[in-house]
Amino acid sequence: MTRDERLRQAAADLQCPPDADIQPGGHYRPLVRDGQQLYISGQLPRLGTQIAVQGRVGDGVTLDQARHAARISALRGLLLMQRELGTLEGLRRVARITVYVQCAADFTQHSEVADAASDLLHQVLGDAGVHARTAIGVYQLPKNAAVEVDMVASALA
C-alpha cells in the first residue's frame, strides 16, 4: 500500500472524509511551507464542523476518548500535508509533533494520549512518521477540544 492509500484507510477508520474542509479560524494558515519545511498549525479533533472529543481528560473524558482525539488531530495534519504536496510520497519525514492535552490536575498519562498520534503517523508513513515529540497537559484548548496536535515536517526536494 502507498502512503496515500494508508491515509485513506486511516481516514475511513476514523470516519473522517479525506476531502474534509480544513479552514483556519483566523488570520493564519493551517500549513506554511518554507522551502522544504512544513509547519502545521495545531489541529483539533474536528470532524466536519464538530469537535469530536470535548472536555477535560481525566474529568469526563476517558483516556481512550483522548487517544481517539489525538488520532483525528494527527490525521488532519497528514491531510494538510498531502494537499500541499499532492501526495504523501513527497514527504521526507515528520520531524516533530507537540500534543496538547486539556486535562484534570491529577491526570498524568499525557504520553499515552500522544502515543495514539505517533502510532497513526507511523501507520501511515512508516519510518518517515517516527518523530521527536512533546506531550503537554494544559488547562484549556480552543473550542473545548480535549487534544490539539501541531507538527513540523519536511518535504523531498
Automatic annotation (TrEMBL):
Pfam families in the cross-refs: YjgF_endoribonc (PF14588)
Domain of life: Bacteria
SUPFAM superfamilies: YjgF-like
Lineage of the organism: Bacteria, Pseudomonadati, Pseudomonadota, Betaproteobacteria, Burkholderiales
Endoribonuclease L-PSP/chorismate mutase-like domain: residues covered: 10-151
The name this protein goes by in its record: RidA family protein
